[in-house]
Amino acid sequence: MAKIASLSGFPEWLPEGRIVEQSLLDTLRSTFELHGFSSIETRAVEPVSQLLSKGETSKEIYLLSRLQAQSRESGHEKNEAQLGLHFDLTVPLARYVLEHSGHLDFPFRRYQIQKVWRGERPQDGRFREFIQADVDVVGSDTLAFHHEIELPLVMVDALSRLPIPPVVIRASNRKVAQGFYEAIGIDDVEETLRILDKLDKVGPQAVTEMLRETVHATDDQARLALELASITGSDASFADRVLALGYRSQLLDQGLDELVNLVEGANDLIPGSLSADLKIARGLDYYTGSVYESTLIGHEDLGSVCSGGRYDSLVSDGKRTYPGVGLSIGVSRILARVIGSGLAKPSRKVPTAVLVAVNDEGERRHAEKTAYQLRSRGVPTEVSPTSTKFGKQIKYADKRGIPFVWFATDEGEQVKDIRSGEQVNADPTRWLPPRSDLHPCLSAPDESSV
Known about the structure:
- This protein has 17 helices and 19 strands.
- By secondary structure, the protein is an alpha+beta fold.
- Strand 17 (412-417) and strand 18 form a beta hairpin.
- Helix 10 packs across helix 11.
- The longest helix has 20 residues, at 15-34.
- The protein is elongated and about 90 Å long.
- The two termini are 43 Å apart.
- The model has no long low-confidence stretch (mean pLDDT 91).
């Protein structure tokens, strides 16, 4: 058989990695629901015209077509909209809200954990197929500013429950950047935002050159744009540094007021949770207010693991507008680092807590009945695949990390903790393993259970 070539950008985890992934996803689900968000799932495809309308995404979209569509499609099929796999979960949310607005209660609080597809070059932490976890609040015509404080704190809570290093959430406001660029005389604000969004990747010199060539910025305008991007702070003093640059506008003042309220409001609720960072721009066109990015302490090379922002014009049917604010966690990006760096490991490779030994094949039915009795009480159980010597059956369990082996002996039913060697009489209709052994748990390399 020919060797199967690996396909980069489409991660597949081994069973123990899948246990880590499921644990992370379960934690995110429970945390989002703790904050009152309802789960939805949207279809994998959207019309390409809709995907292309939301920023610089044409190079990222995977098209969907049948193998023989080119030569055998009917007239009806030719007239159908061209479809593409969604590259994020915000564009599908926009369509979902418009399609179901008559059945939704506003503000609509939704979370969504789903795969997305993005046609970019695979590299560390970046995939072509990956899982995102989003939370959004969408209003009808209006949406209160306090949600821009609430949403990043939901993510702070969710990320703090994962077996990962602390996460720093940094925020800016598109009104600050737009108001400042307009005040210094830069006309193409959207392109300037996209260029500044690349600052961490390409550096200030390359950004300066792009500003000169693309938006025809003068040396002084490029310098001022970079000076604005260098401003950070965890309290309101960052606003004074912006104003000290000597430029004002109504939009700039509004953005500074919102960003100060965001930083002070978030840190009042969870001290140290959020700081201002004026270089954050977010490249997508639909953000209009607060924007957020975050990094893992000690793993900054991974890039942003959670990002998002406020959008006032993403969702509209011409009669009513649905503004929103949301953030997205790059689950697969985090998971790749957690598994690859051993930040968390499962206590065993399989869900099984008990292996029921088989004395001989004639007694397999008895072993199966015992397993059903244990499973009926919520104990993950499997029956030994062979009736070899007990030593080999115990070795089978030990290799997989299964902590208990069940035996039918002349003295009655017994269960053995193969880690300690302790073996005791047990009744399958009454016995339970310790709670910590019932399901696999995650532990850090030098820590107890996380």
